[in-house]
UniProtKB/TrEMBL annotation:
Signal sequence residues: none
Protein name in UniProt: Protein SirB1 N-terminal domain-containing protein
Protein family according to the UniProt entry: Belongs to the UPF0162 family.
Region (Disordered): 1-24
Annotated organism of origin: Streptomyces nigrescens
């Protein structure tokens, strides 16, 4: 069986390389621009999303923020109510189980267009609109269901669920979400503000999971892995996943090389695991015969 030929250089690959360089640089900023990072992710899925398209998405976030009252009386609860009324009720942003089956539900420009998406993408819209309007807003990465918080995470605050149109969440509601997703209990660290890079990694994890369940979309899984590995902090196991994916795609030599490199990383802490990975690399090379 022959190994697949690597992609030939050309305008499209040059544009991808430039976009990924920009993504890596943006992810290393002291204060990463969450909306920009998400739009650069979206551009991997939709090559038609050019600079003008990304600007249009940012302008739409600005426009929505301009529809909110500035520093409303009532503190965090007023911010949450105003966002829910604007985005959930007037604009119709929300989600349903069917949205989990669509790649567009993980792409910021499509979520802004369709006003449908996964909990984390809808939360990003809420956060970016609220931030532009001056709200004390932050993301809350509950296991299995991302939500937003308004106010002081360590003091007076409220939680809201953008997937449900901005429904306010009590502590009991949040605990039920966690129990439904994991069977576990809500702990205080779960409600801490999520770092923008962690949010982007979770978006990419969702895309990887969507593509992994659809082998015909292995190219999507591959670029999601590539972007994940460009983030300053990422699980080392993603390197193993990428190497295995290359082998499944028929890119045996490249996959075997990456397996061998990963085995060297693992060897210091798990010699037996490293030997298993070396055998995987040998098996990949044998598929060329």
């Amino acid at each position: 069986m022959a190994s697949r030929t690597p992609e030939e250089p050309g305008p499209e690959s040059d544009a991808r390389a430039a976009r990924r360089h920009r993504f890596a640089a943006a992810a290393r900023e002291e204060r990463p621009d969450l909306s920009l990072l998400c739009l650069l992710v979206a551009a991997e899925a939709d090559p038609g999303l050019d600079e003008a398209g990304m600007d249009a998405a940012q302008i739409e976030l600005d426009r929505l923020a301009g529809l909110l009252p500035y520093h409303p009386a009532g503190g965090p609860g007023a911010w949450a109510r105003n966002l829910a009324e604007l985005l959930g009720t007037r604009c119709g942003f929300g989600g349903s189980p069917a949205d989990y089956r669509r790649l567009e539900s993980s792409l910021l420009h499509e979520v802004l267009r369709r006003r449908r998406g996964l909990p984390i993408l809808l939360s990003i819209v809420w956060m970016e609109v609220a931030r532009r309007a001056g709200a004390p807003v932050y993301g809350v990465a509950l296991p299995g269901h991302f939500v937003v918080g308004f106010g002081d995470p360590a003091g007076a605050h409220v939680l809201a669920d953008p997937f449900a149109g901005g429904r306010p969440l009590t502590d009991e509601d949040a605990a039920l979400l966690v129990a439904g997703a994991t069977g576990g209990q809500l702990t205080r660290p779960m409600t801490a503000p999520a770092d923008p890079r962690e949010i982007v990694l979770r978006v990419l994890n969702n895309i990887r999971a969507w593509a992994e369940a659809r082998p015909e979309h292995s190219a999507v899984q591959l670029w999601a892995l590539d972007l994940s590995l460009l983030l300053p902090s990422h699980p080392a196991r993603l390197r193993h996943e990428r190497a295995q994916l290359l082998v499944r795609r028929g890119e045996f030599l490249e996959g075997a090389a990456e397996l061998t490199e990963y085995a060297e990383v693992v060897a210091a802490v798990d010699p037996a695991g490293a030997e298993t990975i070396r055998r995987q690399a040998a098996a990949a090379r044998a598929m060329l015969n």
